[in-house]
TrEMBL record:
Keywords assigned: Signal
Signal peptide boundaries: 1-19
Gene3D superfamilies: 2.40.360.20
Protein name: DUF3108 domain-containing protein
Organism per entry: Pseudomonas helleri
Amino acid sequence: MRRALLLALSLLAVPAVQAAELHPFQASYTADWKQLPMSGSAERSLVKNDNGTWTLNFKASMMIASLSESSTFAFKNDSLIPQSYRFERGGLGKAKNINLDFDWTTNMVTGTYNKDPVKVTLLSGMLDKSTYQLALQRDVVAGKKSMSYQVVDEDGVDTYDFRVIGPEVVETKAGKVDAIKVERVRDPTLDQNQNKRITEMWFAKSWDGLLVKLRQVEKDGKEYNIMLQDGTVDGKAVKGS
């Protein structure tokens, strides 16, 4: 349903190019599954916790399905440092649950994937499946044209590659937003069905690169879209032209 909708670095990683501060945000989206005669809603938010860490949340729901994803991370020396990752999907299709904890002292990720134990060795620059989206958002704002992230994906590590397509104006309920379109680059050595998958994202040129639109097409042709409805960044309402 959502495989891509967010390069955080470890304490030993090379800091990212940008030196922008993190700002809390909240955004609401309309969610549309093309093969189903109904729509839903989605929410994405970034909040700073009392202990100085940050939590990135994503939730999507419709009548027969729901999805929630949450990542807590530290932000130090311009680096995103994952601490924990939670994912839960229910309703439509097969249920899925992921619980991961990142221990940068022992350099291990431990947890469960659908009740099966997970143990992954942490290497410099690794992210979880939520914080990479925030890293991508920041890298696009910083002007990068191609990005690559090492992501702890369920019970292993995958490389997520992206490239900037160019500027586009996206019409949203918050107005017309000047955005930058980005697509995920699939590994050409994968089988043909895997390469049929499409992930496209549009990030606002302003508003800290807030996600404006997401389009995901799975290998079986099922398509999922979210579109910005309204939001705030650092307490200021997002407004297009």
